[in-house]
Amino acid sequence: MMLRIEDTDxxxxxxRFEGQLLxxxxxxxxxxxxxxxxxxxxxxxRQSDRLAIYREHAERLLRExxxxxxxxxxxxxELERERALKNQQPPIYSGKCRALDPAEARGxxxxxxAAAIRLQIPEHPIRFxxxxxxxxxxxxxxxxxxxxxxxxxxxxxxxxVVVDDALMDITHVIxxxxxxxxxxxxxxxxxxxxxxxxxxAHLSTILGSDRERLSKRHGATSIxxxxxxxxxxxxxxxxxxxxxxAPSGGTREIFSPEELKKEFSLERVTPSPxxxxxxxxxxxxxxxxxxxxxxxxxxxxxxFFVGAGQLPGNPNDATRAWFGKVVALLAPSVDRxxxxxxxxxLIFRYDPAAAVNAPDNAEVxxxxxxxxxxxxxxxxxxxxxxxxxxxxxKTGAKGKDLFHPVRxxxxxxxxxxxxxxxxxxxxxxxxxxxxxxxLNVRERLAAFRVVRGN
Length: 454
What we know:
Elements: H1 15-27, H2 51-63, E1 67-70, H3 74-86, H4 102-110, E2 116-119, E3 126-130, E4 134-138, H5 140-143, E5 147-149, H6 157-167, E6 172-176, H7 183-193, E7 199-203, E8 206-207, H8 223-229, H9 233-242, H10 257-263, E9 274-275, H11 278-291, H12 294-307, H13 317-330, H14 340-343, H15 345-348, H16 352-357, H17 362-373, H18 381-395, H19 400-411, H20 419-429, H21 441-452
């Protein structure tokens, strides 16, 4: 595999964009054998470093009569385009410079007149085979003679990718079907340059839930966005592979990257547009979060807690050990890691007023408070269980009537983790130096009773 940086569009090519792309690919687990960062026998790997190569082959096409000089200004070309559209004709170049005498054209250029180089499209339909779409044909009339080298000396995309693919021994060109209309120009270039035409596979467009082209209004649209949301790379890779493709022999949907390498085939890619379903991605992400080693999830989750002001920037060993328990408790219930700080609010942000305003059982809470305050021994899951048994015996309450008032009093919420897992986290957290102090059971109960007024 080879990585090439296509940066001839100067206005849109910045070093920071290249760095982001490299980071995104590496995060996804995609590696390459050759590229600008590792070198290789097919370099240079930035198109901006290959301008002399493009000029050489463009001049060869001129000498062989397969391309010609075009002296039309941008204003002339725009007028041509407007006339064609007004007459309900394809907005393609008229080809008027094709009739110029080559010697005269070379003389004009030598005298300093600005000229682009255009490929001369042959007088026959352009045909190629697409692995996804099958046989494809474009008539000569809809292709026009494309510019391959601008008058500024900067080559155009459809030309440079052909030169690069041929010289870099690329065998398959796999891309979105919005590039399908570029392919006849590229096929014509391969043929004019005497190079073999590679295999093409144009993948289906990805649509949003409203079946419109995927855009920012649908949510995240870049790998960096998903990474920032706490989507795991293997979940994203798994989901992307399922867009417009299905495995043979069943409805299986969960594949490791290694399994995808074995299963995937271009022949099973459908030409129909695929709909990007965020909920399906989140379902896969939940699966991979649960399957991942706990230490990995802790490491990935840590920046989200630091950013939320719930964890110090460089936690000590005791805090890290406690934090591991917090993540283990909450991670199985989230779609993406960015949700963890909010889920952890029941640990970090106790609001006694919210607890007081919720419906409760005064008799159960009074009996619970009496048991907690009457025994100063450390609160453990075992001690808590014993207390609740005492409350049950004294009040006759059981099940939801027994535990629900206590849960509301201690967390301010109607639902949450099991007490035997939550209580050790509250007790240990209250002994740590954290940006947002954690209140233990007794402290929460005291705050609750102060606000309640009893």
